[in-house]
Structure formats: C-alpha cells, structure tokens
C-alpha cells in the first residue's frame, strides 16, 4: 500500500461520512484497492476489480490465516457491502508502520532488523496449513484457480508458467532471446521437483506490506491476494528475496544476499529458489504493463535473460 494525500472531497470519504463515520479519511492505495480509516480499530477497503459475488472466498481465506496462531496480525473481514457495483469491505485495522515506505530506497547493506523481520514472517507463514479456500484462489492475470486439475504445487505452477507465457508471448520474446526454451526448461524443472511441504503463500512480501513496531518486530502482514495460494514455502522465500528491492541501485546484491540467507536459515536449496524466481517472472511479467516502458516488465525480462 502507498500513503496518499488525497483531499477530503474524495467521494468515498463522503460515502463513509454518510454511513456514520464523520472522521473517515483516505489512508492508502494498493493493487487491490483503496483503504480508508473510519475510526480507531476499523478501516474500509474499496476494492478495485473485485466482483462482490466471489468475495466469500477472500473472507474464508482471511479467516483461515487469522485462525492460526501467528506472532503478527493479518486481515480479518468484519462486514462487506456493495455500492454502485463496487465491493466495500470493513476490516479490523492492523497496527505498526510499514517497514519501508513505497519508493524509499533501502540501505546499501540491509539492516539486521529487516532481515530478522523477514525471517520471522517467512517462518510463521510456513506454519499456516493449506486450506480449501487457498486452493481455489486465482493468481492475478490467470483465468482459473491455480490448483484446478492438479494435486501438486509444482505441477500447478508449471502449467501456469506455460499459460502465462502464452498470454503475450510476442512482447516477451522480443526482449528475451530463446524464450521458448526458457519456458520449456522452467516448466520441466518444476514438474521434476519432488513433493514439497505446503503452506499459505502470501506472494507479495514487499516492505509496505510488512508492518513493524518501534523495535522492528513484525506486527502485521497486509495485502494477501495478488499471488496468494497454498504451496512450497521455498516459493515464498524466492519471491521475497527477489521483490524486496527490485529497482534500487543494490537490488541484485540484495537479492543474492537474501537468497543466501533464506537458504541457510530456512533450509531451501539455492537452485530451487532460482527456479522459483524464474517462474515468478514468467507468471507476472505482463501484470502491470507490457514493453520496456514498464518497470516490472523490464525487471522480469532482465531476469529471464
């Protein structure tokens, strides 16, 4: 989520004032929608592109995660309604502050408080068992639940890699020589993986989605949904190492540092982490824009090269 200075003429602020929340104000915006603080302890999310009729799955996902003992808070839906075809959910407010704000550059040497917080979150999420709701989720950009027709995460991910690469194959191939071979090798390597442990995967552990207290301890993890599913905790670790600093001047060094740390402390093989990073690039390359003008597309293409 990113903080915003939107003025009080925001139509949703006026909507919440009419709903009995005179102190409502716009708080932050992200991929899923815009969040408004209504009063102490309660926020509302105005969802972007989420159909009201399929929201029960999100409610169940949040409940499955929040029902497991964790050392930090996670979202919980209190109520939901539809207004002018837009889904509005009411949720408990999670505390803390973002570990790093959107656009804030990390230090050249990642501080211990950041790496300790990441290890705490990764270990905790790896303890949350998979559920039926998690297996029914659709990864953003796809047209079906990830697990549909599959009984193993690696097989489901391989099939998604093949579907996603075909969505805008020409645009990606123009930037990645030998793309067909990259896709084929990645899918084959995924299908060759042995059975792995399964737990919830957040899929977007970027600094604004991890809130900490003054001492740097994680107190909340936000914004499940972009790439949330159930699967191998190594996938979560691989993606986190890659996206924690995607565009900074030390991004490559930070990814390598976190990859080594997660391999050592969490027991993941570095070659498996590298494979999952490649898969992540292939399933998300076109979700924000296409072509070299888009930063995420450029990042994915560079990784695949």
From TrEMBL:
<dbReference type="GO" id="GO:0004672">
    <property type="term" value="F:protein kinase activity"/>
</dbReference>
<dbReference type="GO" id="GO:0005524">
    <property type="term" value="F:ATP binding"/>
</dbReference>
<dbReference type="InterPro" id="IPR011009">
    <property type="entry name" value="Kinase-like_dom_sf"/>
</dbReference>
<dbReference type="Pfam" id="PF01636">
    <property type="entry name" value="APH"/>
</dbReference>
<protein>
    <submittedName>
        <fullName>Aminoglycoside phosphotransferase (APT) family kinase protein</fullName>
    </submittedName>
</protein>
<dbReference type="InterPro" id="IPR000719">
    <property type="entry name" value="Prot_kinase_dom"/>
</dbReference>
<feature type="domain" description="Protein kinase">
    <location>
        <begin position="21"/>
        <end position="305"/>
    </location>
</feature>
<dbReference type="InterPro" id="IPR002575">
    <property type="entry name" value="Aminoglycoside_PTrfase"/>
</dbReference>
<keyword id="KW-0418">Kinase</keyword>
<keyword id="KW-0808">Transferase</keyword>
């Amino acid at each position: 989520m990113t903080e915003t200075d939107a003025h009080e003429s925001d139509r949703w602020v006026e909507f919440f004032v009419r709903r009995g929340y005179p102190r409502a104000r716009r708080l932050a915006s992200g991929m899923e929608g815009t969040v408004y603080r209504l009063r102490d302890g309660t926020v509302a999310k105005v969802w972007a592109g989420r159909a009201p009729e399929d929201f029960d799955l999100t409610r169940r996902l949040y409940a499955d995660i929040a029902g497991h003992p964790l050392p930090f808070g996670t979202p919980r839906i209190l109520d939901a309604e539809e207004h002018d075809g837009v889904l509005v959910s009411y949720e408990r407010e999670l505390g803390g502050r973002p570990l790093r704000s959107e656009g804030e550059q990390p230090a050249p040497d990642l501080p211990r408080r950041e790496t300790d917080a990441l290890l705490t979150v990764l270990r905790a999420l790896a303890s949350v068992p998979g559920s039926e709701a998690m297996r029914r989720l659709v990864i953003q950009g796809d047209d079906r639940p990830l697990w549909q027709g599959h009984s193993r995460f690696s097989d489901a991910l391989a099939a998604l890699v093949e579907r996603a690469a075909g969505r805008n194959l020409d645009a990606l191939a123009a930037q990645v020589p030998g793309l067909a071979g990259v896709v084929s090798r990645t899918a084959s390597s995924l299908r060759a993986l042995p059975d792995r442990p399964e737990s919830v995967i957040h899929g977007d552990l970027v600094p604004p989605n991890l809130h900490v207290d003054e001492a740097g301890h994680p107190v909340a993890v936000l914004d499940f949904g972009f790439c949330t599913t159930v699967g191998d905790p190594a996938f979560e670790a691989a993606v986190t190492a890659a996206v924690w600093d995607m565009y900074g001047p030390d991004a490559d060094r930070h990814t390598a540092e976190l990859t080594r740390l997660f391999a050592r402390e969490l027991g993941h093989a570095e070659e498996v982490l590298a494979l999952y990073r490649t898969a992540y690039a292939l399933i998300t390359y076109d979700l924000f824009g296409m072509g070299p003008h888009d930063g995420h597309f450029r990042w994915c293409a560079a990784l695949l090269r």
